[in-house]
Amino acid sequence: MRKPLMLLFLASVPFWLSACGDDDDEGTPPGGGGPDTELPAETWSWVDVTGSACGNGQPTGIGVNPTKDSDDLFIYMQGGGACWDEQTCFVARTATNLATGYQATQFQSETTRGAPFFSRTQAENPFRDMSYVFVPYCTGDVHAGTAVQTYGSRQVHHKGASNVDAWLPRLVSTFPNVKRVFLGGSSAGAFGAQLHYERVAAAFPQAEVHVLADSGQMINPNGNLVTTWFNNWGVSVPAACTGCETDFTRYPAYLADTYPESRFALLAWDQDVVLRTFFAYPAATYETLTRQLLTTAYDGNANARYYVKNGANHTFLGTFNDITSTTGVALDDWLSGWVDGNPTWNNVLEP
């Protein structure tokens, strides 16, 4: 079954993993490398993950920036499009890192590490005191696949969910005392975070697990796309989520209803130009479907909230510290309410 994108906060214990390099030492493994190397605190390091695969079949890994000052873990799943046939994967190339893969070299130049949600010095950042995990995206399947497909003459490893299975146990053994896990992602990562919620919650049964979907509203795409995506990527959904394999809109409601102690947050632009293109809708139709989703899956659920702005932009987290709704709610305050479980945390919807 699939779980959502993740924001994880770690326990205050050393982060022990096999490291391929850190960003301050041009690929030199901290402590000389090896399977039980302690990664440096509050510094990015690349960790190779055995059993993982990008779309080109090459292994990948995760970025880790631990701290000893928090029992919270923030896991961020990267976005970058999607693909499901020869046209989308190899002609239009609508999924990032599919052919190149993603390893230590790519991580050294990864601009996401400088994003405000990974800043430890920005007072407005609600994640500033947490340990960070960066999950790269290179499988074309919104982090949700378990299949290998041949499109034309080329093979694609849609192994996003298999990769989660590969790195998640290592995080569990490294951070056995984690108290809160914040699982999040943007775009493709937002869908991944939602689809992987149950996997992460099962791995950390002692911890709270909360989900943040940045530009990942689960509306049904046009035509039979949802069936094509799930079949080609090898996506599975919880058996208890009746109809979710054919109706995307049921999934966020299922999560909120089934797990009332967790908080599920959605950031959305109502005419998102990137998502509406992938979902094959004109702007007005996409807006209508987005607002319908808010009514059916979020309204009335105290643990599921949304922050929705008018417009065709895509994603929020990269500039969250500069965004305020027309109703006067600053996004950084809204995100802090989600993190803290503030009773004043509520829906924000621009008319």
UniProtKB/TrEMBL annotation:
Keywords in alphabetical order: Signal
Region feature (Disordered): 21-40
Pfam families in UniProt: PAE (PF03283)
GO molecular function, one term: hydrolase activity
Signal peptide range in chain numbering: 1-19
Domain of life, source organism: Bacteria
Keyword Signal: yes
InterPro entries, A to Z: AB_hydrolase_fold, PAE/NOTUM
PANTHER family membership: NOTUM-RELATED, PECTIN ACETYLESTERASE 4
Name of the featured protein: Pectinacetylesterase
Organism: Pyxidicoccus fallax
